[in-house]
UniProtKB/TrEMBL annotation:
PROSITE patterns: ALADH_PNT_2 (PS00837). The gene is ald. It comes from Hoeflea prorocentri. Keywords: NAD, Nucleotide-binding, Oxidoreductase. SMART domains: AlaDh_PNT_C (SM01002), AlaDh_PNT_N (SM01003). SUPFAM superfamilies: Formate/glycerate dehydrogenase catalytic domain-like, NAD(P)-binding Rossmann-fold domains. Substrate binds at R15, K75. This is Alanine dehydrogenase. Belongs to the AlaDH/PNT family. It comes from the Bacteria. Residues 4-137 form the Alanine dehydrogenase/pyridine nucleotide transhydrogenase N-terminal domain. Residues 149-297 form the Alanine dehydrogenase/pyridine nucleotide transhydrogenase NAD(H)-binding domain. The keyword Phosphoprotein does not apply. It catalyses: L-alanine + NAD(+) + H2O = pyruvate + NH4(+) + NADH + H(+).
Amino acid sequence: MRVGCPKEIKNNEYRVGLTPGSVREYIAHGHEVIVETNAGVAIDADDGVYQAAGAKIVPTAKDVFDQSDMIVKVKEPQPSEWAMLREGQILYTYLHLAPDPEQTKGLVESGCTAVAYETVTDDRGGLPLLAPMSEVAGRLSIQAGATALQKANGGRGVLLGGVPGVLPGKVTIIGGGVVGINAAKMAVGLGADVTILDRSIPRLRQLDDIFNGRIHTRYSTIEALENEVFSADVVVGAVLIPGAAAPKLVTREMLSGMKKGAVIVDVAIDQGGCFETSHATTHSEPTYEVDGIIHYCVANMPGAVPVTSAHALNNATLHYGLQLADKGLKAIAEDRHLRAGLNVHRGRITNAPVADALGYELAEPDAVLQVA
Ligand SMILES: NC(=O)C1=CN([C@@H]2O[C@H](COP(=O)(O)OP(=O)(O)OC[C@H]3O[C@@H](n4cnc5c(N)ncnc54)[C@H](O)[C@@H]3O)[C@@H](O)[C@H]2O)C=CC1
Ligand SMILES: CC(=O)C(=O)O
Ligand SMILES: [Mg+2]
């Protein structure tokens, strides 16, 4: 198969869909790899490094899209990219379609087959292609929150770790999954007072065991959420209902109960965000203020640390990427975890939460794939 990797074009997105190491693996499987010039410069991999790995370098994204049977990216296609996709072409990347009707329409109209990293599953009930970026974003969320909390940045002026004789700042994390636990590790490391809320009691038990008394856990009811949000200096939004738009757990009205200059870091913004007042921001303008509360809502947080995150992402995406390149649609038909990743196929929506959120009729993957 001809496998293509364009340069990412989302605001301050420096990751790349294929590292040179991944290129070598595709070449070893007998595939051709086409990479846009300078796609990997931000991870210290110039065109020469890609050529040495076996890739062909082309000057434009259009060349990549025109010449490839499968496109491997990082972020959801932008309008100029979905216009270049075509029927029969496989797109393998993050999509986050539920809160994004325009992109969804673009993909449906393109006729392409789109596999979303964030809905591929594993045997343990996890999301293996989302997890590494959730690890990165969770860890970054505390850096981002601590920075926004500084007075000169509009925040309350609290040092999360405190100092001897002065209490630490308080971090509330809503959702104790991969983002939540990684945020907690960083916040605990800084010396903050940390509380995690979740709806899963087994998950709360696990967190309690892991942190061994160093954090507080709380079952997420409206009352518990209000208490913990109102008393926080930094609130991290880290909930997920796979594929679906994030539930709006913190309303605008609730902001009035928060401390002025407190910070919200809505990591779940890529699924629409779990604060009513959130809207997606970019690394060039990451924060804005509503009712005295600083909002940080960057939808591609790991893009800021591409040297770490491009490799972590490729470690997770390579296995299924090779399956797709080796077997095409048959790979999706054969593997239920990859099938869970199928969101769009030849103009039909094949993921139930996306179909529900955007009012499309659901087409079951098994029914539409019809692989001989
Ligand atoms: N902004 C960015 O750059 C990035 C955003 N993300 C996003 O972060 C979000 C979280 O991802 P993960 O941690 O990997 O998901 P996860 O599935 O590991 O964890 C989500 C947690 O939320 C909990 N939850 C669900 N509903 C809840 C409720 N009503 N109250 C409290 N907890 C609730 C679940 O029980 C689960 O423990 C996702 O939307 C993901 O796409 C991930 C990476 C980068
Ligand atoms: C998960 C995601 O949206 C990201 O890594 O940018
Ligand atoms: Mg997005």
